[in-house]
Fold each of these.
Amino acid sequence: MNAGQARQGPAIEIFGLVKRFQAEGAPAIDGISTAIAPGTITGLVGPDGAGKTTLLRSLAGLLQPTEGTLRILGLDPFVQGDALRERLGYMPQKFGLYEDLTVLENLTLYADLRNVTGEARRLAFDRMLAFTDLAPFTGRHAGKLSGGMKQKLGLACSLLGTPEVLLLDEPGVGVDPISRRELWRMVRELAQGGMTVVWSTAYLDEAELCDDVRLMSHGKVLASGAPATLMGQMAGRCLHVTGILAHRREVLKRALRAPEVMDGVIQGANVRLVLREAGRWPELAPWEAGAGAALVEVAPRLEDAFISLLGGGPGGDSALAEMTPTVELDPHVDPHAVIEARQLTKRFGEFAATDDVSFRVSKGEVFGLLGPNGAGKSTTFKMECGLLKPTSGQALVMGIDLKSSPSEARQRLGYMAQKFSLYSQLTVRKNLAFFSGVYGLEGDRQRVKMDEMIVAFALAPYLDTLAADLPLGFKQRLALACAMMHEPQLIFLDEPTSGVDPVTRREFWAHINGLAQKGVTVMVTTHFMDEAEYCDRIGLVYRGRLIALGTPDELKQSVATAERPDPTMEDAFIGLIEEANQ
Amino acid sequence: MLNRLLRLILKEFQVALGDKRARLMLIMPVVLQTLVFPFAATLEVKNATLAIYNQDAGQASVELIQRLSRTAAFSTLLMVRDDHALQQAIDGQEALLALRFPADFSCRLSSGAQASVQVLLDGRRSNSGQIAAGYVSSVLQAYAVERGARPASTLSVRNLHNPNLDFKWHVLPSLVAIITTIGCLMVTALSVAREREEGTFDQLLVSPLTPAYIMAGKAVPGVVIAVAQGCFIALAAVWGYGVPFTGSVPLLLTGMVFYGLALAGVGLFISSISENQQQAFLGVFTFMAPAVMLSGYVAPIENMPRFFQWVAFCNPLAYFIPILKGAFLKHYGFADGWALLWPMLAIALVTLTAALRLFRRHIA
C-alpha cells in the first residue's frame, strides 16, 4: 500500500493558479482552481493556447506559479519536487526519446534515470513491452518508429517506476485513430489500477472518453464535470436535418441564419444543428431542404457543450465566398476530373509510399484524404499539388500534368500548408502583399484584393503585427487569405485546422463550404473525424493504397453491423483498416 | 514575371532587415571583424622577449645588446647566467629567441678577426622565430658595416606594393573577401533552409514561380548583401586604416558581384541538399574552412601539394583575394583583373547550374 492510496481526498488540488510569462498581456493561466480525484482519467480539453501545457508543466514542477498554490499528493510540485519525482510521471508533447537509440536502450536509459534496477527492472520491461505491443521492436531505433509507436514508447518510459500520478500532454496529437484507441486502452487499464491520469487534448470526441473533464479556453476553466453531465445539459438541443434532397451546404447555410440555431455542421448526408434553447425548434420549410426532409433529435456531444460555452458558432455565411467569383473552368477541362490521380505511384527505394492510387475529383467537390500516419496520405497529396514527382502514373490538375507545364496550372491552384506556412518575421500586411505579388497581382488590383481580404477575415487590427505573434486562429485566417488572393479554381488544404478551437474551425469550414458552392474544387487532408464528414467524398489511404473511396455515409454504412447499426466515422476508419489488415 | 521576381527579392530584404535581431546578425559580425581582425591577425613580430647569455665582458657585446633592445621587435631582454638557463628560456617559451655571445667576442672583433654569435630559435614558433632572427641579423650586419667590415655583397631590399610591410595592408583586402563569404552564404544557404523548416518553401513551390525564379530570388539578395558588406569593409580599410586604394573601383565592384554569384551558387547548392538550418550551417562551414585555407590568404597556393593546387583552382576565393589585393595595392585595372574575373564567372555558372539542377531534382 503506498502513501498516495492511503491518502484521503483529491490527488491534485489547484488553488487560484495564475501563470504569467510576460508582465503585460493576458496570462497563460488566469485563475484556475480545481481538484482532481484519485484513480480517474481527467481530460484537460481546449484548443492550442488554452493553457493546457502550461498547467501540466506547472503540475510537473517545471514552472513556478505566478500566483496560487498547487498540491499533488499533498506536496508542492515546485518546492518539493524531489520528494514528488518518484511518484509523478510526466509525458510532454514531444517525449524526449533518443531517436538514435533502440526501443530497449531508451527504456534502459529511463529505467536508470528512475532508478529501476535488477529484478524490478526486468519485470517492468516485460510488463511495458507486453502492454505496448512493442516487444517485437525492441531492437528498432526510436526514430524509425511510427508516430503511434513513439507515443506508446514515450508512455512506457514515463510509466517506469510506477508513478501514482501521470500527466500526459496531448498524447493523441499526430496519432491516428487506431493508435489512439490503443493508447486509451492502456491508460484506462492504468486508471483502473488506481493511477490518477491527467490527459490533455484538443479533440473533443476523445475527451468524451474521460471520467472527468475541464473545458479550457484562454487560461480559464469554462466548465468541469463528467462528460455525460456536460452533455446532459445539452439534451433536447441537438437535431439532425435528415432526408435532404437539396444541397446540404446550402441547407446548412440557411439553417445557421435561423435565430433558434446556435451552431451547425455537416454530418455525412445530414446537417447537424444545435439549438439555443431546448424545445424552441426552427422552421424547416424556408431552408428548402426537400420534401422528405425532417428534423430529428439526436444525442448531444461534448463539442456541443463546448461551443455553447464559447457563445455559439460563427454562423454559416462566408465573406470570402461571397467575393469569390463563380468558377468558370476552361472549356477543355473535364468538370469531372478537375483533380485526377492516374495509377499514381511513389517509391522510395523498395518502399512504395503511394501504390497505384487513382481517383477523380469533380468541380466544386470537397474531397478528403484520410489515413493513419505514414500511410501515404501526405505523399499522395504532395504529388497531386506538384511538390513531389511520381515514380509512375500521373497527377493531373485540370487535365494538366504539373510536371510538364507547371506555371500555368499553378496560377489556378491555391495551397494552404499544415501549420499555416507564413513568413513569421513579416507583418500581416507584408505577407498579404508578398503572396498576392507572387501570383502576379499588381497596382490597384492588388490593393483592392488586399483590402477585401482584410475585411473578409477581420485582419484590420493586426495589419502591422508580425505573423509569428498572431493568435493561432488569425494565423489560420491569414494563411487562407494568402492562399485565396489570386482566386484559385481549386485549393489544396493540408490539415488546415490542427490545433485551432472549434469555433474557428466552424468558421473555416463555412468558408470552404461557400467556396465549394462557388465551384472551387477542394482537396483536404485531416485527422479530425468530424471534419471528414464535411467532405463530399473521402479516399482512405492505408499502406500506400486507396482502400476505400466514397461518401462519408457510404464508408460508415460499409462497416455497419447488427450490433452497431449506426457507426461513427471513426468506427468506419478503424473498421476499414482492420479489414485491410486481414 | 519580372514583377514577381522583384516581390521575391523585396521579401528577402524585408526578412533579412525587418527585425532587429536579423539586422544585427548581418551587421555585427562585419563591424566586429573589421575592428578585431586587422590587429589580431598579424604575422609581425613585436614586443617579443629576447634571452641573452653574455659570456663576453667587452664593449662590443654591450653595444649590440643595447641596439637590440631598442628595436620594436624586442621589448624585453632576459639576461641569463648559464647555458642551462638559456635552454630553459626557450623551453618555457619565456623567450622567442636566445643569443649567446662567446667569451672572446669583443676581443676577436677588436683584433680584426671574425667573431660569431650563437642564435637559438624556438622551432615550435618557426615563423615568428625566423622573422625575429632576420631582425637580429640585420642589426648585427649594420654593426659590422659600421666597424668597417666589408660584406661580400649587400642585399638591398625594397618591398613593392607595401613598402613598410604594414600587415594591415595584407589583412584588410582579404577581409573583404572573408566577410562577404559569410554574409552571402548566410543569406542564401540558411534562408532557404529556414523557409523549408517553416513550410513557406512549399508555398513558393506550388506558386507559378519556377525553380529558376525562386533561386534568382535568393541569389540576388545574397549578392547585394555581399556587395554591401564588402563595400563597407573596403571603405573602412581606406578611411579607417589608411590602406591605399590604387586600382580601379569598377574592377573591385565587378569582382564582388562575380564572387557573390559564385558564392550564391554554392549557398543554394548547400541549401538544396540540407533539410534544416542546422545542416545548412554545417554545410556552410564545410565549405568555408577549406575555401579560406586554399585561397592563398593563409599560405601561398604555389607551396601546396599539386592536388590542393587543383582544388584551389576551383575555389572562387583564390581569385577574389588576388583581385582585392590587386585593386587595393597593385594598381589593377580591368586588363590586369580579367584573368581573375572570368574564372569566377565560370565557377558561378557551374555552381548556379548545379544548384538549379539539384533544386529541380529535390522537388521531384
Amino acid sequence: MLKIETTHDSNFTTLHLIGEVDASNSIELDEQITGLVESGAKKILVDGTKLEYISSAGLGVFMSYIEDFQENEISLVIYGLNERVYQVFRILGLDQLIKIKSDKEEALRV
Amino acid sequence: MIMKHELKLYCDTTRLADLRKFLNDILQNTSLSDIEQHQVTLAVDEVCANLIIHSHGCNAKEFIKVEVEKENGILKIEIVDRGEGFNIIEYKEPEISHVKATKRKGGLGIILVKRIMDRIEFEKIGTQNTCRLFKILKSK
C-alpha cells in the first residue's frame, strides 16, 4: 500500500511517501512527480520518513528524472529515509546521483 | 534441520505485498540482520515482479511458485514458473549510467538481485523454469 500526500510551501513542495513503493504502484509516484513538474515546481522535497519499502520500480522513477531536472534546474531532495530503505539506494550507488539528506532542515539547505 | 515454506503467487503485481509478508515472516527466524532480511525480500520481489510483468503479462490466472528452504546454514529461495522463462544468469544488466541517460525505468531490479544474493542459478527443463537464489546464513 502506498499513499502519497502533497504539501505546498511558499518556495517548495513536499511529497510525503507513506507505505511501500513497488511494481504495482510506482506509476503513482511517477504521475505525482510529473504533475509537480507540469505545475512549475522548482524545488521538490520527498519525505521518506514513512517509506517502509522501495523496489527498483520506484528507484527507477527517481532515476528517470535526474537528467531532466538537471537541465531544467529543478531540485529534488529525498529526506528521512530509514536505514533499510537508504541501504537499497546505496546498493545501486543512487546516493551519489540523487540528493539524500537525513532530515527536512538539511534538505531545505540544499 | 530443514525448514521449508511454499507460496503460490498469482501473476498480479498487487500480490507482491503478500510475497513480502510471506518472506518477512520466514526471514525473521534466521540469523540475517534486519537490513539483510529486507534486502533478500527485495531480491525475491524483483525476480517475481519481473516474471509477473514480462513473462506472464500480469495474467492473474497464472502463478509462480516460491519455495524457501533453510539447510546447512544456507537460505535457498526457489522461484518456479512455466512459460518462456527469464534467464537471469545470461541477462546482461545495463550500466547505471545508461539507465540514467536513457531514462528507462527498468533494468535496476536485476542489478539489485545480483548484488544482494550470494549465488544465483537458473535452470530450464521443458517449459518449467527455476531460478534459485542463495544467501549464506551466519551461525547464530
